[in-house]
Design brief:
This protein has 364 residues and is an all-alpha fold. It has one domain. 67% of the residues lie in helices and 3% in strands. It contains 12 helices and 4 strands, in the order E-H-H-H-E-E-H-H-H-H-H-H-H-H-H-E. The protein has a two-stranded antiparallel ribbon. Strand 2 (103-105) and strand 3 form a beta hairpin. It starts with a strand and ends with a strand.
Length: 364
């Protein structure tokens, strides 16, 4: 029987350390550009610090909320409705460059509904599956019904378009279904069914097709479609073992696009070098180990699924982000959790960790 214990301090302080490192690196990556654009070197990091403070307070508050609260249809159904509504609402708001990912309030405050979809999807799947662990062979009444919400979320996010986030949701869904007891043959069937639409999204959309071609040959168009990844690889390569030094990076000075968001790990590699990059990876490994430890030590199937889903969401995002920076996968817009500039991502991730920390209070 589970007993109450203290919150997982390793997970708590590792999360805080990642946030602090993130604020430091966002300032380093954005200061010069922010000064040029907004006449204040603290413009970007100031906003990020505000989100970080709100997120940490929310994390601490959610640590105190018993996770059983999320096990009720009275929570799950409204959460699904609100999230779906927000994902639809982005299409009613004028976007930029044919992209509809943000809800804007005034000229400064933006909110990205796809970030809410991540924890809501995890909570839904945990709630739906935890009472059906003995029925995972029933593809019609269990697997098919479990897939409805993920498919709706993924289709709406792909339409924005945001294929990177959609792939993260797809991966988390597959892993949670496997943890719940889904047979591998169903995963194979699902993967085969996904190949045609994914191939169409990658090769029949001009800019995505160009990214795929550049991924195969980054030198083919260094000033065009390959500009992002080439500048990223230059930043990583020039960092060497110990880096140029904090705030001393060159690529962030209008060379490396999205230096404080999608490509912040390239700036970390340039300024802190191989050693600094490895230390960041170690922090994510610690977070992952403690999160998975909470999952597999939980006797409650719902808590196990939630902890596993939250942890794998963070790790998958980190994997994709770092892989893009190192040109291991084609370029896609995914932030580095807890580090990249992006208020909604930071806040929602910290809220998810707050739920995870509450789960760690109950151990064998």
């Amino acid at each position: 029987m589970a007993k109450l214990v203290g919150v997982d301090k390793w997970l708590f302080f590792t999360t805080l350390l990642l946030v602090v490192v993130g604020l430091a690196m966002v300032f380093s990556a954005s200061a010069v550009v922010a000064q040029a654009r907004f006449h204040s070197e603290f413009a970007d990091v100031g906003r990020q610090a505000g989100w970080a403070l709100a997120g940490v307070l929310a994390m601490i508050a959610l640590m105190q909320v018993d996770y059983d609260v999320y096990k009720s249809p009275r929570f799950i159904y409204p959460a699904l409705c609100v999230t779906t509504l927000l994902l639809v609402l982005v299409f009613l708001i004028p976007g930029s460059h044919n992209v509809h990912r943000w809800i804007r309030f005034g000229g400064h405050f933006t909110f990205q509904p796809s970030e809410i979809a991540k924890p809501v999807l995890v909570l839904f799947l945990a709630w739906f599956l935890h009472t059906r662990l003995d029925a995972m062979r029933d593809w019609k009444h269990t697997l098919l019904r479990a897939a409805i919400v993920p498919v709706v979320f993924i289709l709406l996010i792909v339409k924005q378009p945001d294929l990177g986030t959609a792939l993260v949701l797809l991966g988390v869904t597959a892993m949670m279904l496997l943890l719940a007891g889904m047979q591998w043959k169903y995963l194979l069937f699902g993967a085969l069914a996904t190949v045609p639409p994914l191939a169409a999204l990658l090769f029949m959309v001009a800019w995505r097709r160009q990214r795929m071609l550049v991924f195969l040959n980054p030198e083919a168009d260094p000033q065009g479609a390959g500009f992002h990844i080439n500048q990223s690889l230059i930043a990583v390569g020039t960092g060497g073992l110990t880096g140029r030094g904090y705030m001393e990076g060159i690529q962030k000075l209008f060379f490396l696009p999205e230096a404080s968001t999608d490509f912040i790990f390239a700036n970390i590699a340039e300024e802190l070098g191989f050693i600094g990059s490895i230390l960041i990876l170690i922090l994510f490994v610690v977070l992952g180990v403690r999160g998975l430890r909470a999952a597999f030590r939980s006797q409650d199937p719902f808590a196990r699924l939630v902890a596993f889903g939250v942890t794998t969401t963070i790790l998958l995002q980190a994997f994709f982000n770092i892989s893009v920076v190192l040109s291991l996968v084609p370029t896609k817009g995914i932030p580095l959790p807890l580090i990249s500039s992006g208020g909604t991502s930071l806040f929602c991730t910290l809220c998810s960790v707050g739920i995870l920390l509450n789960i760690t209070k109950k151990a064998d």
